[in-house]
Automatic annotation (TrEMBL):
The keyword Secreted does not apply. The chain crosses the membrane at residues 963-984. It comes from Ascaris suum. Keywords: Membrane, Transmembrane, Transmembrane helix. Residues 286-379, 697-802 form the Fibronectin type-III domain. This is Tyrosine-protein phosphatase 10D.
Length: 1058
């Protein structure tokens, strides 16, 4: 028990060590010895174990116990009193039945004693003939816990004698109750332990083991019995030698292969301990006459014989390769068998070691061993092939792979027709890896056409496989490539040509002599395969030799027909070569002619005819026609059976002005016939073009207004041009019925038929709505018009009218003090930006320097005033005097002149000031006039201002007339003076003037005239009494036609608000 486990016990065990116990009294029995009859055997349980003990028979007279005083330790003393009132049978010392060699039990009284509180058992080793070092130490034991009725004494040594003293204690005093001597049971050696050995042979068994440690015994008693058949042997006593640490027991005169029940018991003082018992077996006898026989390529049979009285109950067969250190294979066989079939993990051709042992339980006999080489696997595919580079026959055979069989070499035996035998051995050719089949090959001298018997075996470690035999007549060699033969189609036939190269022909001659045979010939056979209903073609066969030096030709074969061609060599004795050229050959397809007959806009006709009718198998052939358009799309795809009569083909549904290509292919044979592949001949393409037709509608027509009178049309050419588009017709339909329909031609570029076409069309009127369409034109006529839903409609934008290039004309003779007449032409009315809605006359008063009052325009946001609204100004701003509607016409042709009198309405003061009114002008004031035209209420344009005109002053009519007459006279006088001066100058040109005189005369004359005119004008003005500045202004009005700077008429988008 370990220290940790003892610490867990709930009770204390008080051990008193190294304290000498002085025995003062000795226990003796009075008058007579006790006998066993005074004791009875009782079995009773306690809390931990079931205990059996001998109890004193209380009916007898109790023995007197003399108590001898003893001292335990230095702190307590044992009373020397003798306890007469404690029965001795309650302190029995007995061996524990579970382990009588090391356990003792001391049984305490069942009822608690009033004299003792605790009991102690002291153990002292008193073995004799044992060295002091071998004795057990003195120990003291107490009950494991209070109230327990037994003291367990453990850890004693087997065979040792112990003195057991039972001591009672109370209040620090100890008293010896009982003392008894006990010899522990000895123990037998353990021959099953790892340090023991049991050696068995045929007739004896030797047992060897270490003796139990610290155990004492006198003798080892051995008992053994043969079990089957039952046989008893005398017991053996082996005396123990204390100095030896092991024991060896030998049992002889035993029978082989038998079981023996062996028991070994240790004794001391005639006390027997627990024996060791075991079943031991002697070794059986070894098998005899072991042999191995092949059953098949992967199994062998192992046989043996069994000696009499062998004693074996089974056999174990172990086998493995002789030259391998790998794990062996095992097979168990019952004792009734003398043969065993071994099939697992055997490799043909390998030498195996077979070992057989007889077994009886776990004992085995000496092994019986035999070495045997398994037959290798035989060769396969024994054949004779031609080695064309060596120009010899080579005999080859397949040898199993290294994984399947071990083969060292091959042996071949050849027997000729004359019974001559040739034996040859050849090594095995190694493969790339061990899993591939190997090969044996050797060159042999054989003659084509003769018979041979050939056998072959494989050999491994001297063991030969089963024989592979074959008898045959040697066939001549044949190979198209090695012979250099060339088969080709020629002139409606097949021609086989010999090689033309001298070196190749010499090589062929050598091949022919060695492996074909000089008396052999080359055969070519042609068999027709086509099935025709009219007549049956016969087979053709021809033969030749290299010495003929001419090609082999088979004539008169039909084009498109299928033939079976066979080429081979034949010996003189009629033996045909195993190798031959065999092919199903179809002759080339015939050619056809394709011609076009008639080509229209959407139809075309052509015909197909065979070039020649000679040697053509028309039943096997068909012509495939595919007609493609210019985009590669198929419009006709059909196959026609080839006939000797021309076939007519009509194509309809074609597209005008399109190029089409006729692709023809003659095909002989069916695609499903794998044996005889079809032959095809592609004919030259035939191209034609259909005639032109009216084009289709244009695509993606769009319109965009550029200004009020121009649009940009864009469209894509028709998808179906049906010809070369020469031009386009743009049709324009005014939807407001102001004008008639009209059209415009737009040119087309043949090089840009896949690009968008853009065209700009003019002569539109702003504000009107138009519908437009475009038609393409080819040589065949105008194309279709797009659907009404596809037509484009546009409403032209409005802008202010274009600015007139002329001004209002003032009639000078109509100038009055309150009015004046102006004149203008309808040529000033321009409808390019839209139809005119109305026009108005604008009157503006100007100052002496030609400026106008612009405050009204700034204050009223460009709003033109009326006559009534300008009366409050000293200088009238521009105002509307006359406003008239305009007839909505496209052109004002022919033009007409319109005169308007300004200032004729004297009732304007009586009407609303915001109403347009042609009220009177101011007398003696300067005015300018302009014309304003409207395309919309807010879209208008002004002409340039007219000349400045000054109304008459408020005088009589006579004064005004006199002024006018004076001005007229002044004008006439000035004109006459100019004429006279011109004539005079012209006359003087004929005479050369002197330097400086003539020029000075002219200048002086011209200055005099001007001075005269100025004086007369001054006199005129003086008579009239007018202001010189005012008169100068009036005169200037008659001569000045240009308006003053800075008084240009406004032009643009003006707003007129009322």
């Amino acid at each position: 028990m370990s220290r940790s486990s003892r610490a867990m016990l709930p009770l204390r065990i008080y051990c008193i060590c190294m304290i000498p116990l002085i025995l003062l009294l000795r226990l003796s029995y009075a008058d007579k010895q006790l006998s066993l009859s005074d004791w009875r055997f009782s079995i009773f349980p306690n809390e931990q174990i079931t205990t059996s003990r001998w109890e004193w028979n209380t009916s007898k007279t109790p023995a007197q116990i003399l108590s001898l005083p003893s001292s335990i330790g230095s702190s307590s003393e044992v009373s020397s009193r003798i306890l007469h009132d404690l029965p001795l049978n309650e302190f029995a010392v007995e061996k524990d039945v579970t382990d009588p060699s090391s356990l003792l039990n001391v049984y305490l009284p069942q009822a608690p004693s009033p004299r003792f509180r605790q009991y102690i058992a002291k153990v002292v080793d008193i073995s004799s003939n044992v060295e002091h070092a071998e004795k057990d130490v003195n120990r003291t034991f107490v009950a494991s816990r209070p109230g327990l009725e037994v003291i367990n004494i453990y850890g004693l040594h087997p065979g040792h004698q112990y003195s057991i003293s039972v001591i009672g204690r109370r209040d620090g005093e100890s008293e010896l109750i009982k003392e008894e001597s006990v010899i522990m049971d000895p123990v037998a050696p353990d021959f099953d332990s790892h340090n023991a050995t049991v050696i068995s042979s045929h007739t004896n068994i030797t047992l060897r083991a270490l003796k139990p440690e610290k155990a004492i015994q006198d003798t080892f008693r051995v008992s053994y019995v043969q079990m089957d058949p039952l046989k008893y042997f005398p017991k053996l006593d082996v005396h123990d030698i204390m100095e030896q640490r092991h024991i060896e027991i030998y049992l002889g005169n035993l029978s082989p292969g038998h079981d023996y029940n062996v028991s070994v018991t240790s004794l001391i003082n005639e006390i027997e301990g627990k024996p060791w018992t075991g079943i031991l077996t002697t070794s059986p006898l070894s098998p005899e006459n072991v042999s191995v026989t092949d059953l098949n390529a992967s199994c062998v049979q192992v046989a043996w014989s069994l000696p009499k009285r062998s004693g074996a109950d089974r056999f174990s067969i172990s086998y493995g390769p002789e030259k391998s250190d790998g794990r062996t294979n095992k097979l168990d066989v019952s004792s009734s068998e003398t043969t065993a079939d071994v099939c697992g993990n055997l490799q043909p051709g390998v030498t195996f070691v077979f070992t057989i042992v007889a077994q009886k339980r776990h004992e085995t006999s000496e092994p019986s061993t035999i070495t045997y080489t398994l037959k290798p696997k035989p060769p396969e595919n024994l054949r004779v092939v031609v080695d064309y580079p060596k120009r010899k026959f080579r005999m080859t055979m397949d040898v199993p792979s290294e994984v399947e069989s071990k083969v060292d070499e091959c042996q071949v035996s050849i027997v000729t027709e004359g019974f001559e035998t040739v034996d040859r051995k050849v090594g095995v050719e190694e493969a790339r890896n061990s899993a591939l089949t190997r090969r044996c090959s050797l060159f042999v001298d054989l003659q084509p056409g003769r018979r041979y018997e050939i056998s072959a075996v494989t050999i491994s470690d001297g063991a030969a496989s089963n024989k592979l035999a074959k008898g045959f007549a040697l066939q001549p060699a044949f190979d198209m490539k090695a012979f250099g033969l060339n088969l080709q189609e020629e002139n409606s036939g097949l021609q086989l040509e010999w090689p033309n190269n001298e070196l190749t022909r010499a090589r062929l001659a050598d091949i022919w002599q060695n492996i074909v045979g000089n008396d052999s010939s080359l055969h070519m056979r042609v068999d027709p395969q086509s099935r025709t209903s009219r007549w049956k073609e016969q087979s053709k066969q021809f033969e030749s030799r290299p010495s003929d030096n001419e090609p082999l030709f088979v004539p008169n074969l039909r084009m498109g027909s299928c033939y079976k061609v066979q080429i081979y060599t034949v010996t003189k004795s009629g033996i045909v070569s195993s190798q031959r050229f065999e092919e199903l050959h179809r002759m080339s397809a015939p050619s056809v002619n394709i011609t076009t007959d008639e080509i229209a806009k959407v139809t075309a006709a052509f015909r197909v005819a065979i070039d020649t009718e000679k040697n053509v198998d028309a039943d096997e052939c068909a012509v495939s026609l595919i007609v493609l358009d210019m985009h590669g799309a198929s419009v006709y795809d059909r196959s026609l059976r080839l006939s000797r009569q021309p076939a007519h083909v009509l194509l309809d549904g074609l597209r005008p002005y399109h190029k089409y290509t006729i692709n023809a292919q003659v095909k002989c044979g069916n695609s499903g016939e794998r044996s005889c592949a079809p032959k095809m001949r592609a004919m030259e393409q035939v191209t034609f073009q259909t005639r032109q037709d009216r084009p289709g509608p244009v695509q993606n027509l769009t319109v965009r207004a550029l200004n009020p009178y121009s649009v940009q049309l864009s469209w894509f050419p028709p998808a179906l041009a049906n010809g070369i588009i020469t031009h386009y017709i743009v049709g324009i339909h005014p939807m407001d019925e102001v004008d008639n329909d009209w059209s415009v031609n737009v040119g087309a570029s043949p090089t840009h038929m896949d690009h968008t076409v853009d065209a700009i069309v003019d002569n539109f009127i702003g504000g009107l709505k138009y519908r437009m369409n475009v038609r393409a034109v080819t040589e065949a006529g105008e194309g279709d018009i797009s659907a009404i839903s596809d037509a484009v409609i546009i409403e032209m934008p409005l802008l202010p009218p274009p600015r007139p290039t002329t001004r209002i004309e003032i009639l000078r003779n109509t100038v009055r003090s309150t009015g004046v007449t102006v004149r203008y032409s309808t040529a000033m009315f321009n409808t390019k930006h839209g139809l005119l809605r109305k026009y108005s006359l604008i009157v503006g008063e100007v100052t002496d320097n030609g400026r106008m009052n612009e405050n009204w325009i700034f204050e009223h946001h460009n709003k033109t005033a009326t006559w009534g609204q300008v009366q409050r100004f000293d200088l009238w701003p521009p105002y509307v005097a006359v406003e008239s509607p305009v007839e909505p016409v496209r052109k004002f042709f022919p033009s007409r002149v319109i005169s308007e009198v300004i200032g004729v309405d004297s009732t304007c003061e009586d009407i609303d000031a915001e109403v347009v009114c042609n009220g009177p002008l101011k007398a003696g004031a300067a005015y300018r006039f302009k014309l304003r035209m409207y395309t919309a209420p807010l879209l208008w344009t002004d002409s340039e201002y007219s000349e400045i005109v000054i109304t008459e002053a408020a005088h009589s009519a006579t004064t005004v007339g006199s002024v006018l007459i004076g001005l007229l006279v002044l004008f006439i006088a000035s004109l006459l003076s100019a004429v006279v001066l011109f004539v005079w100058n012209k006359r003087n040109k004929s005479c050369p003037p002197t330097y400086g005189s003539a020029q000075s005369s002219k200048e002086s004359q011209w200055a005099a005239v001007k001075m005269m005119m100025a004086e007369r004008a001054a006199d005129c003005l003086a008579k009239l009494g007018l202001d010189s500045q005012h008169a100068a202004s009036s005169c200037a009005n008659a001569a000045n036609d240009a308006p003053p700077n800075g008084l240009t008429a406004p032009f643009g988008h003006h707003r007129r608000l009322h």
